Amino acid sequence: MLERLNYLWRLLGTGLAFASFGLGGLFMTLVIFNIISLITRDEALRIQRVRRVIYYAFRFFVFSLRAGGVIDSRFHGTERLATCRGCLIVANHPSLLDTVFLMSRMPDVQCIVKYELWDNPYLGGVMRAAGYISNNGDAAVMLEQCRNALSRGQNILVFPEGTRSVPGRAIKFQRGFANIATHFKSPIQLVTIKCKPSTLTKGNPWYAIPSRQACFDITFDQQLDMSDYLEHEPRSIKVRKLTRELEQYYLGKLCNE
Q1: Angle, CA of 149, 22 and 126, to the nearest 5°
Q2: How confident is the model at residue 117 (pLDDT cuts 50, 70, 90)?
Q3: Under a CB-based contact definition with an 8 Å cutoff, are residues 93 and 236 in contact?
């Protein structure tokens, strides 16, 4: 009986979280971000303030999920973020909540987001106000935006899979992150996200929650120095090798549980 009540409570909490996430994004776009725009003339400062609001909103969101018993989460190695400047934050992507967890620990991070989100009625305004980078297929424009962010010392959050992974299938990385890392010789901060049992995975609706509470373990692992990575090799070889190496790295991490 108690297990059934716990399941129903978590199902209700998940539904409320989804609703509040969408409505919260709309409220921030229509009210908070407009206020910030009115009182902040400088574009860089305006974007920084918007991202700070998003950071606190995500911290509160994660706190609410934990306090309500909907999910549990544990962070390891967050002290490594203190040395991250002009880095690519590279993570695997098992769940819909991954972005929220990571951004709740980084107050001024740049993100590369799917272009579909720019037309989302609830989140599109957030993407634009925060000055995030749209992955719309124009590689030259995206590289230039990444160069600008990295040169200012901003970190860029990237999910190399491009979308959520499917449980039971080997992860497959796209090469975009490797192009950025080798082009600008940006350090890579590796992040491993584990979720047991799986929840909010690709292809599953929000209400398909597991029978017991899901626990997320988010670990900030080693930082890779890319300054002399395969120094005398053509960049095309560097990109392919780096992509394969990190695929194998994450396969080992996720299988070693």
Answers
A1: 25
A2: confident
A3: no
Question: The pTM is what?
Answer: 0.93
Q: What are the helix (H) ranges across the chain?
A: 2-27, 33-39, 43-67, 98-103, 124-129, 139-151, 176-184, 235-255
Total number of residues shown for the chain: 257
- For a pLDDT cut of 90, what percent of the chain falls above it? 74
pLDDT, residue 204, reads 87
Adjacency order of strands within the sheet including 88-91: 71-76, 214-224, 188-196, 88-91, 156-158, 110-114, 133-135
Q: How far apart are CA 208 and CA 186, in angstroms?
A: 39
DSSP 86: S
Question: Two tokens at 161?
Answer: 């899979």
The answer on pLDDT for 211 being more than 80 is: yes
pLDDT classification of 256: cutoffs 50, 70, 90: low
Domain-wise residue ranges, the chain? 2-255
State the amino acid at position 78 in one-letter form: T
Buried b / exposed e over 53-64, threshold 16 CB at 10 Å, is bbbebbeebbee
Q: What angle do CA 207, 121, 115 make, to 5 degrees?
A: 90
What pLDDT does 9 receive?
92
The fold for domain 2-255 equals: Glycerol-3-phosphate (1)-acyltransferase (3.40.1130)
One DSSP character per residue, 159-184 reads -TTSSPPPTTS-----SHHHHHHHHH
Torsion 29-34-36-41 (CA) sign: positive
CB 5 within 8 A of CB 211: no
